[in-house]
């Protein structure tokens, strides 16, 4: 998730706080029913999986939802304090094959509205961002809108406003965690003029996905290098300025399947990306005193595996060119388990860590300013998702941020979060 370190910060009103407490009490008193765990931010499926399922079901499917995060910085960071933020969404798919007879074709649209504080910027000072719902502005927008076509040979083509992280640099087993780096690594999310077409702002894209064998896939995308308007975070903006260039991404993967299984229970994937334009060098100046230019590129490796449908493990590593990107290395690993050991197999328990290291150019630029950096920022997360019923979940979460922002003058932070999520679909 691309998150700017400037945004709209608002104090919580007593009315909002009392209303929040009443809502939580009423939800907790709801009858407890079984519910299957699902990823926790904006998508519960990758774009391709959703298109495939809808091609076999209703003419129109839709889902509406709202999530709210209460964040408390308990110690360390910039300052001790509390923040709250929320995200509402409405998304739907129109099956053009069922509606108009266009074989294998569908149209997907996703509207979203973000509001609230910026706890990482205001309270913690971390680079990786403790909640994946944090955005730079209070605004509503068309988040995604694309047309997709799938052929019988498992090849599909997609064009429109598109969330890159719905399919690229994605591991399902890391998605229940709240820290943004478990969605897409900081190595990639920091790049571009306004982020690489991920939450909270996307850009136009053309994506091709094909199955090379029953267990291997190859996907590639060409995206507008400027997501939205970097100078105007409010509303929907499609920026097609010729000097912005393009972002090129490719990922190849091998899907793991247990003997007799019909669907994958893991994968190993390798991806690479590169911008066609250049960016300002972080520490090198030309003879005229202006910043030199350098390319922005990187790669990543993903691995995840599910065991008996109860336990899931993941490992991720990413690299970004350090001449123009502040953090050049991202490492993450973790595990989740169904809470069957306490008689609640519908709930989920997870523990994970993620680490980013500042690159040599960023380190040099900060030292020149008299602000030396530590070797890395570490984030450790413990989370539990309580699925109250098939529409409502509560997720208490604890994170320890060591060396926030890799800044030597910021003490490590202990952060508590509570996420409420409500969804409804047809």
Q: What would your notes on this structure say?
A:
The model is unreliable at 1-48 (pLDDT under 50). The protein is mainly β. It has helices at 14-28, 47-54, 96-100, 119-124, 186-189, 360-368; strands at 60-75, 81-95, 105-116, 139-150, 156-162, 203-213, 216-224, 246-256, 266-285, 291-307, 311-320, 327-339, 344-358, 377-387, 392-402, 413-425. It has one domain: Porin, CATH 2.40.160. The chain has a 16-stranded antiparallel barrel with strand order 1-2-3-4-5-6-7-8-9-10-11-12-13-14-15-16.
CATH superfamily: Carbohydrate-selective porin OprB
SSE class:
mainly beta
What value does the average pLDDT take?
87
The level 1 CATH classification is Mainly Beta
Percentage of β-strand residues:
over 45%
Please outline the major beta sheet: 16 strands, antiparallel, barrel
Helix content: 10-25%
Beta strand count: 16
- The number of distinct structural domains comes to 1
CATH architecture: Beta Barrel
The strands making up the biggest β-sheet line up spatially as 1-2-3-4-5-6-7-8-9-10-11-12-13-14-15-16
Oligomeric description of these chains: single chain
Count of helical regions: 6
Uncertain spans, ≥5 residues at pLDDT below 50? 1-48
Kindly identify the CATH topology.
Answer: Porin
Rg estimate, integer Å: 21 Å
Q: Give the overall shape, derived from the CA principal axes.
A: globular
End-to-end distance: 28 Å
Helices and strands, in order, run as HHEEHEHEEHEEEEEEEEHEEE
